[in-house]
Each structure stands twice: as structure tokens, then as C-alpha cells.
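Onboarding guide, step 5: your first structure request.
Type a short instruction followed by the sequence, for example:

Predict the 3D structure of this protein.
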Amino acid sequence: MVKVITFGNFKGGTGKTTNSCMISYRLAKQGYKVLLADLDPQANATALYLKTKQVQNNEVVKFDNTLMNAISNDDISTIVTKIRDNLYLLPSFADFTSYPIFLEKKYPNTDDQYKRAKHFSNLLDKIKDDYDYIIIDTPPTVSVYTDSALMASDSVIIVLQTQERSYVGAEAFISYLQELVSNYDADFNIAGILPVLLKNNSQVDQSILEQAEAEFDKDNIFKNVVKNMERLKRYDIIGIVDPDLKNTKT
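The system replies with C-alpha cells like these:
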């Protein structure tokens, strides 16, 4: 059965997009069929994957359609793009910024918030059985984009970079998840908190980790710690070359 997972935090720059992309890539290499859905209008995940396809296959992808057009036509399968074996992308574009307006027009009543939040999930239901995993990347905001991702998800992973602002963002995100369950009866579980080190072997990083373990319970924090990896910064320029996750420590 397909698993739909959203990576989130209300603080930008926490490694949320990078981990969404790298984990999707790794799952595909392990033989799972994976769809990365980019629900962030900034389209950073889309840019990374298209650069990867260009570098690995010497192929520049040209689109005759956009995600917003596909949503308007009730068929997001038309925009899904193959990146490599087992790995597919639901790409975002600049016109996806109009998605909130689209939903307001489609569901104009003030009590239609649930329908707006659920709309993307209904579209994803039509294609999700084609995949083993669907990973959703979202903007670090309280928005219909985040609501749409969460309402479509089975699980949520909170990405916690070891800095104070990311910690506060994680707290706010968890509170928001609880509100979504209360207001919309959302049906997802919090799989855990994924620590991403800002700097390897730093006392500050260790302090934030200990603070998170005390606040969120150590059992809710993944034992896998994603270390700071300088080469990941190059991937935005050169695409994903061949990720090895030696720097992920269990």
C-alpha cells in the first residue's frame, strides 16, 4: 500500500526540501516507485530534480503544461515527469501561486475550508496507487499548500535543524498539526522528528538536540541524524550525482 509522507517545519532553510529530495531519490534507488510532489510555489525541489535529470541524462525537460493547469483539469497525472528509474516528479511552477485563488473560486462559501484543504488529496487519490511512496514538499508557511499536503498524508516527518529558530518552528508546526486534526479530522500520524545538524560536532547542535529530546520525548526523535554535508550545497548547481548517505549516522 502506498505511503504518503509530508516533510515539514514552519522555519525555512531547515533542510526540509533537501531531505525530501534525497530520501525520495534513495528510496527509488532501493527499488521503490516514488513520486516527489512539490507543493511549494518556489519550486526548489522541482529545480533540483530537473537539474539532476539534465545532468544524468543530458536532457532538458520542456513542459507544455503546468501543475496549475493540470489541477484545473482535474488530472495531475498529465504533469508527472520521470526523473530516473522509479523516481517521478509532480513539478511546481510560478503559476501555482494562484492555487489559493482557484480554491476560493471553486469553493466560495466561508464554511468550505475543509473542501479547499481536501481538494489536492482528492486529485492525488486518482494516481497514488501507482506508487510505493509519495513524498510531499511544502513551503514553511501556514497556508493552503501546507493544509493540502497534510490532508493528503498518512505520515508527517518534522525536520529539525539544530538551531533555535528551527526548534521554535518545529514547536509551531506540531501545534498546527494538532489544530488540523481537531478542525478537519485529519488522518495522519507524526512519524517523528528528523534532526539535521547545522554543524557537525558542535556543542550548540548537541544542546538543541537535548532540548528537543526533553520537549518532544526522545522516543519521538529519529535515531538517524543527518549530518551537515557540504556536497549537498553543490547539488543545486550540478544536480544529484550519486548520493551516498555515509554521513547519516544511526
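Each response can be followed by summary notes, for example: The chain has one domain: 3-242.
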